[in-house]
Amino acid sequence: MKDIGSIAKSASVAAVASHQCDICIVGNGAVGKAAALGLAQAGLRVVLLGAPVPAPAAPTVSTSNWDTRVYALNHVARNLLSTLRVWDALDVARVSAVEGMLVKGGADSAAGQLSFDAYSAHVDALAWIVEESNLNRALDAALKFASNLRLLGGRAKALQADAAASAVQLEPGETIRADLVVGADGAQSWVRSQCEIGIDYRPYHQRGVVANFSCERPHRGIAYQWFTGGEGIVALLPLPEQGVSLVWSAPDLLAQELMDEPLSQLAARLSRLTADTLGQLQPLQPELVQAFPLSLLRPHSLVAPRVALIGDAGHVVHPLAGHGMNLGFGDVAALIKVLSERGAHRDCGDAGVLARYARMRKEEILLMQMTTDGLERLFGSDFSPLRSLLNFGLNLLDRTPVIKSQLMTHALGRAFDKE
Predict the structure, then answer these.
(1) What are phi and psi of 367, to 5 degrees?
(2) Fewest Cβ atoms nearer than 10 Å: which of 88, 138, 365, 408?
Protein backbone atom coordinates (compact mmCIF):
# COMPACT_ATOMS: atom_id res chain seq x y z
CA MET A 1 0.00 0.00 0.00
CA LYS A 2 1.37 3.41 -0.98
CA ASP A 3 1.80 6.10 1.60
CA ILE A 4 0.10 9.49 1.21
CA GLY A 5 3.29 11.10 -0.08
CA SER A 6 3.68 8.50 -2.84
CA ILE A 7 0.06 8.83 -3.84
CA ALA A 8 0.34 12.62 -4.07
CA LYS A 9 3.51 12.32 -6.12
CA SER A 10 1.92 9.84 -8.54
CA ALA A 11 -1.12 12.08 -8.96
CA SER A 12 1.14 15.04 -9.68
CA VAL A 13 3.09 13.12 -12.34
CA ALA A 14 -0.15 11.89 -13.94
CA ALA A 15 -1.45 15.46 -14.11
CA VAL A 16 1.55 16.52 -16.20
CA ALA A 17 0.26 15.38 -19.58
CA SER A 18 2.34 14.76 -22.68
CA HIS A 19 0.65 15.20 -26.04
CA GLN A 20 2.07 13.54 -29.14
CA CYS A 21 1.14 14.87 -32.57
CA ASP A 22 2.40 15.46 -36.08
CA ILE A 23 1.95 19.24 -35.93
CA CYS A 24 1.61 21.73 -33.09
CA ILE A 25 0.21 25.10 -34.17
CA VAL A 26 0.87 27.98 -31.79
CA GLY A 27 -1.66 30.78 -32.21
CA ASN A 28 -5.40 30.53 -32.75
CA GLY A 29 -6.23 33.50 -34.95
CA ALA A 30 -7.96 32.96 -38.28
CA VAL A 31 -4.74 31.86 -40.03
CA GLY A 32 -3.84 29.39 -37.27
CA LYS A 33 -7.36 27.97 -37.22
CA ALA A 34 -7.38 27.54 -41.01
CA ALA A 35 -4.02 25.76 -40.86
CA ALA A 36 -5.19 23.45 -38.07
CA LEU A 37 -8.37 22.60 -39.95
CA GLY A 38 -6.67 22.01 -43.29
CA LEU A 39 -3.85 19.88 -41.89
CA ALA A 40 -6.26 17.81 -39.81
CA GLN A 41 -8.44 17.25 -42.87
CA ALA A 42 -5.28 16.06 -44.66
CA GLY A 43 -5.08 13.25 -42.09
CA LEU A 44 -2.39 14.69 -39.83
CA ARG A 45 -2.62 14.72 -36.03
CA VAL A 46 -2.80 18.38 -35.01
CA VAL A 47 -2.73 20.27 -31.72
CA LEU A 48 -3.92 23.89 -31.88
CA LEU A 49 -2.51 25.84 -28.96
CA GLY A 50 -3.92 29.18 -27.89
CA ALA A 51 -5.88 30.91 -25.19
CA PRO A 52 -9.62 30.19 -25.51
CA VAL A 53 -11.46 33.00 -27.30
CA PRO A 54 -15.15 33.55 -26.41
CA ALA A 55 -17.33 32.96 -29.45
CA PRO A 56 -18.86 36.25 -30.63
CA ALA A 57 -22.64 36.40 -30.71
CA ALA A 58 -24.08 35.98 -34.18
CA PRO A 59 -25.72 39.29 -35.17
CA THR A 60 -28.48 39.68 -37.73
CA VAL A 61 -27.99 41.58 -40.94
CA SER A 62 -30.54 44.21 -39.88
CA THR A 63 -28.24 45.51 -37.16
CA SER A 64 -25.74 48.27 -37.87
CA ASN A 65 -23.25 46.77 -35.45
CA TRP A 66 -20.54 45.85 -37.95
CA ASP A 67 -17.00 44.83 -36.98
CA THR A 68 -14.40 47.55 -37.25
CA ARG A 69 -11.91 44.92 -38.47
CA VAL A 70 -12.79 43.53 -41.89
CA TYR A 71 -10.74 41.63 -44.46
CA ALA A 72 -10.74 41.93 -48.26
CA LEU A 73 -10.37 38.22 -49.10
CA ASN A 74 -9.19 37.40 -52.61
CA HIS A 75 -9.68 34.27 -54.72
CA VAL A 76 -6.80 32.42 -53.03
CA ALA A 77 -8.46 32.93 -49.65
CA ARG A 78 -11.89 31.96 -50.96
CA ASN A 79 -10.52 28.81 -52.63
CA LEU A 80 -8.82 27.74 -49.41
CA LEU A 81 -11.88 28.42 -47.24
CA SER A 82 -14.10 26.62 -49.75
CA THR A 83 -11.81 23.58 -49.69
CA LEU A 84 -11.99 23.60 -45.88
CA ARG A 85 -15.82 23.81 -46.13
CA VAL A 86 -15.75 27.13 -44.28
CA TRP A 87 -16.75 29.57 -47.02
CA ASP A 88 -20.33 28.32 -47.27
CA ALA A 89 -20.64 28.53 -43.48
CA LEU A 90 -20.12 32.32 -43.53
CA ASP A 91 -23.14 34.52 -42.92
CA VAL A 92 -23.53 35.52 -46.56
CA ALA A 93 -25.85 38.41 -45.69
CA ARG A 94 -22.88 40.08 -43.98
CA VAL A 95 -20.42 39.54 -46.87
CA SER A 96 -20.01 42.23 -49.53
CA ALA A 97 -18.56 41.49 -52.97
CA VAL A 98 -16.04 43.98 -54.34
CA GLU A 99 -17.11 44.46 -57.95
CA GLY A 100 -14.69 47.27 -58.73
CA MET A 101 -11.81 49.29 -57.35
CA LEU A 102 -10.87 52.93 -57.90
CA VAL A 103 -7.46 54.23 -56.82
CA LYS A 104 -6.88 57.98 -56.91
CA GLY A 105 -3.70 59.98 -56.42
CA GLY A 106 -5.54 62.65 -54.43
CA ALA A 107 -8.92 64.23 -53.80
CA ASP A 108 -8.80 66.98 -56.45
CA SER A 109 -10.20 66.57 -59.95
CA ALA A 110 -6.71 66.66 -61.52
CA ALA A 111 -5.52 63.62 -59.55
CA GLY A 112 -4.63 60.54 -61.54
CA GLN A 113 -6.67 57.40 -61.15
CA LEU A 114 -6.49 53.67 -61.80
CA SER A 115 -9.61 51.51 -61.96
CA PHE A 116 -10.32 47.78 -61.97
CA ASP A 117 -13.58 45.91 -62.36
CA ALA A 118 -14.74 42.31 -62.07
CA TYR A 119 -16.37 42.31 -65.51
CA SER A 120 -13.06 43.07 -67.26
CA ALA A 121 -11.35 40.35 -65.22
CA HIS A 122 -14.08 37.84 -66.17
CA VAL A 123 -14.85 37.05 -62.52
CA ASP A 124 -17.88 37.47 -60.30
CA ALA A 125 -15.96 39.67 -57.84
CA LEU A 126 -12.46 41.07 -57.29
CA ALA A 127 -12.63 40.27 -53.57
CA TRP A 128 -15.08 39.83 -50.72
CA ILE A 129 -15.29 41.99 -47.58
CA VAL A 130 -15.69 39.71 -44.57
CA GLU A 131 -15.92 40.74 -40.93
CA GLU A 132 -13.42 39.26 -38.47
CA SER A 133 -16.17 37.78 -36.28
CA ASN A 134 -18.00 36.25 -39.25
CA LEU A 135 -14.81 34.53 -40.38
CA ASN A 136 -13.94 33.26 -36.91
CA ARG A 137 -17.45 31.94 -36.22
CA ALA A 138 -17.32 29.86 -39.41
CA LEU A 139 -13.83 28.55 -38.60
CA ASP A 140 -14.80 27.70 -35.01
CA ALA A 141 -17.85 25.79 -36.19
CA ALA A 142 -15.72 23.73 -38.59
CA LEU A 143 -13.08 23.01 -35.92
CA LYS A 144 -15.71 21.37 -33.70
CA PHE A 145 -16.23 18.63 -36.30
CA ALA A 146 -12.58 18.08 -37.26
CA SER A 147 -11.07 14.71 -36.45
CA ASN A 148 -7.36 14.33 -35.61
CA LEU A 149 -7.49 17.77 -33.96
CA ARG A 150 -7.07 18.72 -30.31
CA LEU A 151 -7.59 22.25 -28.99
CA LEU A 152 -5.45 23.18 -26.00
CA GLY A 153 -5.40 26.29 -23.86
CA GLY A 154 -2.42 27.27 -21.75
CA ARG A 155 0.63 29.40 -22.27
CA ALA A 156 3.78 28.16 -23.99
CA LYS A 157 6.95 28.77 -21.97
CA ALA A 158 9.68 26.93 -23.90
CA LEU A 159 10.31 25.53 -27.35
CA GLN A 160 12.90 22.87 -27.99
CA ALA A 161 13.58 21.97 -31.61
CA ASP A 162 16.44 20.34 -33.48
CA ALA A 163 16.92 18.09 -36.48
CA ALA A 164 15.52 15.10 -34.58
CA ALA A 165 12.43 16.37 -32.74
CA SER A 166 10.55 19.35 -31.32
CA ALA A 167 8.59 19.96 -28.13
CA VAL A 168 6.56 22.84 -26.70
CA GLN A 169 6.44 23.09 -22.93
CA LEU A 170 3.43 24.76 -21.31
CA GLU A 171 3.33 26.69 -18.05
CA PRO A 172 1.07 24.12 -16.33
CA GLY A 173 3.85 21.58 -16.99
CA GLU A 174 2.38 19.83 -20.01
CA THR A 175 4.49 19.03 -23.05
CA ILE A 176 3.45 18.87 -26.69
CA ARG A 177 5.78 16.69 -28.76
CA ALA A 178 5.48 17.22 -32.49
CA ASP A 179 7.31 16.61 -35.76
CA LEU A 180 6.64 20.23 -36.70
CA VAL A 181 5.79 23.40 -34.77
CA VAL A 182 3.94 26.08 -36.75
CA GLY A 183 4.16 29.68 -35.54
CA ALA A 184 0.85 31.40 -36.25
CA ASP A 185 1.13 33.74 -33.28
CA GLY A 186 1.22 37.14 -34.93
CA ALA A 187 3.70 39.93 -35.53
CA GLN A 188 5.20 39.63 -32.03
CA SER A 189 5.64 35.88 -32.56
CA TRP A 190 6.85 33.93 -29.53
CA VAL A 191 7.75 30.98 -31.78
CA ARG A 192 9.91 33.18 -33.99
CA SER A 193 11.74 34.61 -30.98
CA GLN A 194 12.34 31.14 -29.53
CA CYS A 195 14.01 30.14 -32.80
CA GLU A 196 16.11 33.32 -32.74
CA ILE A 197 15.03 34.23 -36.26
CA GLY A 198 16.14 37.80 -36.88
CA ILE A 199 13.88 40.43 -38.40
CA ASP A 200 14.11 43.62 -40.44
CA TYR A 201 11.64 46.09 -39.00
CA ARG A 202 10.49 49.45 -40.30
CA PRO A 203 7.84 51.45 -38.43
CA TYR A 204 5.73 53.61 -40.73
CA HIS A 205 4.90 56.05 -37.92
CA GLN A 206 1.29 55.59 -38.95
CA ARG A 207 -1.75 53.99 -37.45
CA GLY A 208 -4.58 52.28 -39.26
CA VAL A 209 -7.74 54.03 -38.08
CA VAL A 210 -10.85 51.91 -38.68
CA ALA A 211 -14.54 52.77 -38.34
CA ASN A 212 -17.82 52.16 -40.16
CA PHE A 213 -20.21 54.59 -41.85
CA SER A 214 -23.36 54.65 -43.91
CA CYS A 215 -23.14 56.56 -47.16
CA GLU A 216 -25.71 58.78 -48.83
CA ARG A 217 -24.99 57.51 -52.33
CA PRO A 218 -24.76 53.80 -53.26
CA HIS A 219 -21.21 52.45 -53.37
CA ARG A 220 -22.18 49.88 -56.04
CA GLY A 221 -19.67 47.39 -54.66
CA ILE A 222 -16.69 49.64 -55.41
CA ALA A 223 -13.70 49.86 -53.07
CA TYR A 224 -12.17 53.35 -53.09
CA GLN A 225 -8.65 54.42 -52.15
CA TRP A 226 -7.13 57.90 -52.04
CA PHE A 227 -3.40 58.65 -51.68
CA THR A 228 -3.58 62.04 -50.00
CA GLY A 229 0.12 62.68 -49.34
CA GLY A 230 0.66 64.18 -45.90
CA GLU A 231 -2.70 62.99 -44.57
CA GLY A 232 -2.02 59.37 -45.41
CA ILE A 233 -4.00 56.78 -47.36
CA VAL A 234 -7.78 56.60 -47.09
CA ALA A 235 -9.69 53.48 -48.13
CA LEU A 236 -13.46 52.95 -48.07
CA LEU A 237 -14.53 49.32 -48.48
CA PRO A 238 -18.10 48.34 -49.37
CA LEU A 239 -20.35 46.79 -46.71
CA PRO A 240 -23.90 45.50 -47.16
CA GLU A 241 -26.82 47.87 -46.61
CA GLN A 242 -25.03 50.85 -48.18
CA GLY A 243 -22.33 50.89 -45.53
CA VAL A 244 -18.60 51.42 -45.88
CA SER A 245 -15.65 50.38 -43.74
CA LEU A 246 -12.92 52.98 -43.32
CA VAL A 247 -9.22 52.07 -43.19
CA TRP A 248 -7.26 55.31 -42.85
CA SER A 249 -3.48 54.85 -42.75
CA ALA A 250 -2.80 58.13 -40.96
CA PRO A 251 0.43 59.64 -39.57
CA ASP A 252 0.64 59.14 -35.81
CA LEU A 253 -0.25 62.72 -34.83
CA LEU A 254 -3.21 62.84 -37.19
CA ALA A 255 -4.32 59.39 -36.10
CA GLN A 256 -4.47 60.57 -32.50
CA GLU A 257 -6.61 63.54 -33.58
CA LEU A 258 -8.97 61.20 -35.43
CA MET A 259 -9.25 58.98 -32.37
CA ASP A 260 -9.97 61.92 -30.05
CA GLU A 261 -12.61 63.70 -32.13
CA PRO A 262 -16.28 62.71 -32.50
CA LEU A 263 -17.04 60.34 -35.36
CA SER A 264 -19.28 62.99 -36.91
CA GLN A 265 -16.21 65.20 -37.28
CA LEU A 266 -14.25 62.30 -38.74
CA ALA A 267 -17.08 61.80 -41.25
CA ALA A 268 -16.81 65.46 -42.26
CA ARG A 269 -13.04 65.08 -42.80
CA LEU A 270 -13.71 62.05 -45.00
CA SER A 271 -16.24 63.90 -47.13
CA ARG A 272 -13.63 66.59 -47.79
CA LEU A 273 -10.79 64.18 -48.57
CA THR A 274 -12.92 61.99 -50.81
CA ALA A 275 -14.44 64.91 -52.72
CA ASP A 276 -17.88 63.86 -51.50
CA THR A 277 -17.72 60.76 -53.71
CA LEU A 278 -20.30 58.84 -51.69
CA GLY A 279 -22.25 61.84 -50.46
CA GLN A 280 -22.74 62.51 -46.78
CA LEU A 281 -21.31 59.89 -44.43
CA GLN A 282 -22.96 59.01 -41.12
CA PRO A 283 -21.32 56.97 -38.33
CA LEU A 284 -22.94 53.59 -37.81
CA GLN A 285 -24.25 52.81 -34.34
CA PRO A 286 -22.83 51.99 -31.93
CA GLU A 287 -20.13 54.53 -32.75
CA LEU A 288 -16.76 52.86 -32.58
CA VAL A 289 -13.31 53.75 -33.87
CA GLN A 290 -10.10 51.78 -33.37
CA ALA A 291 -6.47 52.14 -34.41
CA PHE A 292 -3.47 49.86 -34.78
CA PRO A 293 0.20 50.68 -35.50
CA LEU A 294 1.53 50.06 -39.02
CA SER A 295 4.93 48.61 -39.82
CA LEU A 296 6.92 46.49 -42.23
CA LEU A 297 8.35 43.30 -40.76
CA ARG A 298 10.60 40.90 -42.64
CA PRO A 299 11.85 37.79 -40.76
CA HIS A 300 15.16 36.53 -42.10
CA SER A 301 13.63 33.10 -42.63
CA LEU A 302 10.20 31.48 -42.75
CA VAL A 303 11.59 28.25 -41.35
CA ALA A 304 13.95 26.89 -38.71
CA PRO A 305 14.70 23.29 -37.66
CA ARG A 306 11.22 21.69 -37.35
CA VAL A 307 9.53 25.10 -37.31
CA ALA A 308 7.53 27.00 -39.96
CA LEU A 309 6.06 30.51 -39.72
CA ILE A 310 2.73 31.52 -41.24
CA GLY A 311 0.66 34.72 -41.26
CA ASP A 312 1.93 37.81 -39.46
CA ALA A 313 4.58 35.71 -37.71
CA GLY A 314 6.25 35.39 -41.12
CA HIS A 315 5.51 38.79 -42.68
CA VAL A 316 3.79 42.09 -41.93
CA VAL A 317 3.00 44.50 -44.77
CA HIS A 318 1.35 47.91 -45.07
CA PRO A 319 -2.45 47.47 -45.34
CA LEU A 320 -2.80 49.75 -48.39
CA ALA A 321 -3.29 46.72 -50.66
CA GLY A 322 -5.49 44.85 -48.17
CA HIS A 323 -3.51 41.63 -48.62
CA GLY A 324 -2.20 40.85 -45.13
CA MET A 325 -4.77 38.13 -44.43
CA ASN A 326 -4.54 36.87 -48.02
CA LEU A 327 -0.79 36.33 -47.63
CA GLY A 328 -1.48 34.36 -44.46
CA PHE A 329 -4.03 32.14 -46.17
CA GLY A 330 -1.55 31.70 -49.02
CA ASP A 331 0.95 30.41 -46.45
CA VAL A 332 -1.64 27.93 -45.18
CA ALA A 333 -2.45 26.65 -48.67
CA ALA A 334 1.28 26.22 -49.45
CA LEU A 335 2.00 24.43 -46.16
CA ILE A 336 -0.91 22.02 -46.66
CA LYS A 337 0.33 21.31 -50.19
CA VAL A 338 3.97 20.58 -49.29
CA LEU A 339 3.05 18.44 -46.29
CA SER A 340 0.48 16.47 -48.28
CA GLU A 341 3.06 15.82 -51.03
CA ARG A 342 6.05 15.13 -48.77
CA GLY A 343 6.16 11.35 -49.37
CA ALA A 344 5.87 8.48 -46.89
CA HIS A 345 9.59 8.50 -46.08
CA ARG A 346 9.56 12.07 -44.70
CA ASP A 347 7.90 13.40 -41.59
CA CYS A 348 6.28 16.84 -41.34
CA GLY A 349 9.39 18.50 -39.94
CA ASP A 350 11.77 17.22 -42.60
CA ALA A 351 14.25 19.96 -43.58
CA GLY A 352 13.71 19.41 -47.31
CA VAL A 353 9.93 19.74 -46.93
CA LEU A 354 10.27 23.00 -44.99
CA ALA A 355 12.77 24.34 -47.54
CA ARG A 356 10.21 23.72 -50.27
CA TYR A 357 7.57 25.63 -48.29
CA ALA A 358 9.95 28.59 -47.90
CA ARG A 359 10.73 28.59 -51.63
CA MET A 360 7.05 28.48 -52.57
CA ARG A 361 6.25 31.55 -50.47
CA LYS A 362 9.38 33.65 -51.04
CA GLU A 363 8.46 35.34 -54.33
CA GLU A 364 4.89 36.33 -53.48
CA ILE A 365 5.77 37.66 -50.03
CA LEU A 366 8.76 39.62 -51.31
CA LEU A 367 6.74 41.12 -54.16
CA MET A 368 3.95 42.22 -51.82
CA GLN A 369 6.43 43.71 -49.35
CA MET A 370 8.24 45.64 -52.08
CA THR A 371 5.01 46.83 -53.70
CA THR A 372 3.28 48.08 -50.56
CA ASP A 373 6.44 49.61 -49.10
CA GLY A 374 7.30 51.30 -52.39
CA LEU A 375 3.80 52.74 -52.85
CA GLU A 376 3.77 54.03 -49.29
CA ARG A 377 7.11 55.79 -49.80
CA LEU A 378 6.15 57.26 -53.17
CA PHE A 379 2.62 58.42 -52.44
CA GLY A 380 3.43 59.51 -48.91
CA SER A 381 5.36 62.44 -50.35
CA ASP A 382 3.93 65.98 -50.54
CA PHE A 383 6.62 67.02 -53.04
CA SER A 384 4.51 68.51 -55.86
CA PRO A 385 6.66 67.50 -58.89
CA LEU A 386 6.83 63.91 -57.63
CA ARG A 387 3.09 63.75 -56.99
CA SER A 388 2.41 65.13 -60.47
CA LEU A 389 4.62 62.43 -61.96
CA LEU A 390 2.88 59.73 -59.90
CA ASN A 391 -0.56 60.94 -60.95
CA PHE A 392 0.59 60.84 -64.57
CA GLY A 393 1.78 57.28 -63.97
CA LEU A 394 -1.62 56.23 -62.58
CA ASN A 395 -3.39 57.61 -65.65
CA LEU A 396 -0.90 55.90 -67.95
CA LEU A 397 -1.40 52.54 -66.21
CA ASP A 398 -5.15 52.97 -66.46
CA ARG A 399 -4.82 53.25 -70.23
CA THR A 400 -2.46 50.25 -70.57
CA PRO A 401 -4.66 47.12 -70.68
CA VAL A 402 -1.81 44.57 -70.63
CA ILE A 403 -0.22 45.93 -67.45
CA LYS A 404 -3.62 46.46 -65.84
CA SER A 405 -4.48 42.83 -66.54
CA GLN A 406 -1.24 41.65 -64.91
CA LEU A 407 -1.87 43.80 -61.86
CA MET A 408 -5.42 42.48 -61.58
CA THR A 409 -4.31 38.86 -61.89
CA HIS A 410 -1.84 39.34 -59.07
CA ALA A 411 -4.44 41.05 -56.89
CA LEU A 412 -6.88 38.19 -57.44
CA GLY A 413 -4.20 35.75 -56.30
CA ARG A 414 -1.66 33.53 -58.00
CA ALA A 415 -3.74 30.41 -57.46
CA PHE A 416 -6.55 32.06 -59.42
CA ASP A 417 -4.68 31.31 -62.65
CA LYS A 418 -5.05 27.58 -61.90
CA GLU A 419 -8.77 27.59 -61.23
Answers:
(1) -65, -40
(2) 88
